[in-house]
Amino acid sequence: MKTHWRIAFGLALLLAIPLGSSLFAPLSLSPLSAQRRRDPLNPLEIDQLRDAMLEPDQRLKLYVKFSRDRMTKLEQMRSDPKTTDRGRQTHDMLEDFLAVYDELNDNIEMYIGRKDDIRKPLKVVIDADTEFQSRLRALKNSANTNAAEANQYEFLLTDALDTVDSSADDHRKTVAEVEEYMKRKKKK
After folding, report:
1. Assuming Cys at both sites, which of 9, 35, 128, 175 could form a disulfide with 64, CB separation 3.0 to 4.6 Å?
2. What's the confidence (pLDDT) of residue 99?
3. 3-class secondary-structure state, position 143
């Protein structure tokens, strides 16, 4: 009888306390939650994106700008002689760039699904893809990097290059698909 009461009390307690409560924090520490990082976007950027939610042209251009900002900060950090733990910082900044760039791709997919006319911003995205490819390759071929430092971000850099390369191809195909869709829509 005591066991049933304890089980019922435990279930009631679980239902009464939100799972995000610090009481259950040790129970929710999985490898995935331990790997979560902060949002790579700052509050101002988040507000700008929220304001542009219904304007694909503006929103996609913001994502390009934010991705470009991450690349610029990465390059500035790497060229600063006062930087310490350059390998770790490079890794973290590449991670931020990739997170923002992935959001850009997710938004493109969302607007395609909604049948929005995103031809103009896609041209901006394609130009940025070429720029990002060049900047990432320059980082990969950087002569001022020692092997121990490069090991800290090599996998992420390869992933970023692969992502931008495949996305650039997808973006070019998407422009053609949107052009075709808009022609059909105009005929109707």
Report:
1. 128
2. 97
3. coil
H or E stretch including 162? helix 154-187
The per-residue pLDDT for range 28-76, each reduced to its tens digit, is 344 444 455 678 999 999 999 999 999 999 999 999 999 999 999 999 9
Per-residue pLDDT at 146: 85
Kindly state the average pLDDT of the residues 105-127. Answer: 95
Q: pTM of whole model > 0.85?
A: no
Q: Cα separation of 184 and 33, whole Å?
A: 46
As to burial, measured by CB atoms within 10 angstroms (0-12 exposed, 13-18 middle, 19+ buried), residue 20 is exposed
Distance CA 188, CA 186 (A): 5
Amino acid at 107: N
Q: What is the DSSP letter of 141?
A: T
What are the residues whose beta carbons fall under 8 Å from the beta carbon of 38, sequence distance 6 or more? none
Which of 112, 33, 106, 32 is CA-nearest to residue 67?
106
Check: CB of residue 178 under 8 Å from CB of residue 118. Answer: yes
What is the rounded CA–CA span in Å between residue 128 and residue 86?
Answer: 25
Number of H helices, E strands in the chain: 8, 0
Q: Fill in the amino acid letter for 70.
A: R
